[in-house]
Design brief:
- Among the domains are: about 20-60; about 70-140, no CATH class.
- The protein contains five helices and four strands.
- Helix content is about 45%, strand content about 15%.
- It has about 160 residues and is α+β, with helices and mostly antiparallel strands.
- The radius of gyration is 24 Å and the shape is elongated.
- The protein has a four-stranded antiparallel beta sheet.
């Protein structure tokens, strides 16, 4: 058993929160305290909205994957980013994602990532575009150029094909 050290008198340490530091810095910059408080509140709200947006996007992506589970399992793994020799993003047969990461020693590996992590790394619209392109390629259809789908009109090169 380790010997007990004699108790040292506790020093009071004052820790500022992020919002307080922001207000203090803003006040030093000449901003009125009321404006500094409003800016800090708006910054906190933006952070909260970001988390909500990621959560909603991850839920929608999860729902899409579950709805198309049987089809996706047949064609998985789907390469969504990178090349076959250096994949960056893969949708696996169990509907999980693998993402390329590089550690401090510059070693590269494919690590499992949650849907929330994936929607933080890639914009949700980009993810769906990549999934669509991979599935169209597997189906033997031409890949639509990004932004070509407007109100369901389709794109040149489809030759009337429906997916």
């Amino acid at each position: 058993m380790a010997a007990k050290r004699p108790a040292k008198p506790l020093k009071k340490k004052i820790t500022l929160t992020r919002a307080t530091r922001t207000r203090a810095a803003a006040t030093r910059r000449g901003l009125p305290p009321e404006l500094a408080r409003k800016l800090a509140d708006a910054a906190e709200a933006a952070g909260s909205e970001r988390l909500t947006a990621v959560e909603h996007a991850a839920d929608r992506l999860g729902r899409y994957l579950r709805e198309h589970r049987n089809t996706l399992k047949v064609v998985a793994p789907l390469l969504l980013a990178g090349s076959p020799k250096a994949p960056q993003l893969i949708l696996e047969g169990d509907l999980s994602f693998r993402v390329r990461s590089i550690d401090a020693r510059k070693r590269s590996s494919l690590d499992r990532a949650s849907t929330a992590e994936v929607v933080e790394l890639w914009a949700p619209a980009d993810l769906y575009d990549r999934i669509e392109a991979a599935l169209r390629t597997k189906a033997g259809l031409a890949v639509r150029p990004t932004g070509a789908i407007v109100a369901g009109l389709g794109a040149a090169g489809d030759h009337g094909a429906k997916v």
